[in-house]
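hey m, so remember when u said the tokens were messed up on ur end? i reran from scratch. heres the input so u can diff it against urs
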Amino acid sequence: MALNLYFALRKPNKFRGGLNNDKLFIAFIFFAMVSGAALSTPGYKQISIYLFIAFNVALFCHYSWPSIGQKQLLTFQWIMITTGLIQFAAFKLFDYQIAFIDATHYEKGYSVTQRLRGFFVEPNWYAIAITFNTLLLYGRHVWQRVKEYKWTTLITIIVMLLNGTLTTLAVLAFVYFATAFRRNPVRGMMIGIVLTALVWAFLSYRASLLGNTDSNRVLNHSSRVMPVLRVAMYQSNQEWPKVFFGHGLGSWGTKAIENRLSVLVYEVNATTRDGSELPVFLFEFGLLGTLLFLLYLLNKYIRFHRDDFHFKGAVLLFFCCFALYPTLKFWMYMPYFFYAVSFLNEQKYSDLT
């Protein structure tokens, strides 16, 4: 925030460039904050802080992207690998959970207890971080980077499988398979077979952690689908302003929970999100606010050249995480996404291509 203030006061042209790079994102944040303030929702002040910090992170990434190259990305990849293996070994060898919250969180018997998560609170957040970094690290020259980083590649695959997050692994597999198939169908099919085997290994691993092979429980469909259906049904009975503009930022933890729209959360808490952001957005921001956010992502996706599949993949990954996880409070920890989209307005991509 201090750096952004410095650029606003001393280098206004650069500051305006950062604002112009993310007009739709800024418009969405403004819409979200105003909706909460106008309706005086209980949690809008607290959640607005997360959005304000995410906005500052996006601006910072616009200024600092020239300093990010292969060396920094490779270093971060190994930090993720090392911390992941340390945490996993501590649990498997010494039955010790590295915890930054109440350790009982990892004693509930769910897969979160058994999965590699590094120094993150949840395995999903670890997976999001390392997958974004993997897309940027390998860039558009995947085979060249695989040959250059043989051990990094092998150990990255291992920690991703031990982490066991389907969404990130599936997005990564799809991005590389689709690109390889477009360039060379035969090679693409061979890669598809390998990636299918990896996904099968993942599903088997997750099922073993749960002690059964129930795919619905492994994939956890209901916690994502049912809230969307409940919100759609609830909104269909509301007046049109609520349908189009929503109930305001921070209303999910109170009004939505009171109306039993969630299948995961039952206790009223002003700052609570749900298992994914999609139903929360539809409820809090209505059709207009949700569409504005999706237009922001679509705009970023279509403006990248198709050869920049790693950048397109970063946008796709961000969308999938939005649809399947409660990511809004985590945006401020996702500079890798904002670095990726910062390259849109730059003619020189340094060595991230």
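this time it looks ok to me. Residues 273 and 305 are 34 Å apart (CA to CA). if urs says something different then somethings off w ur setup not the seq
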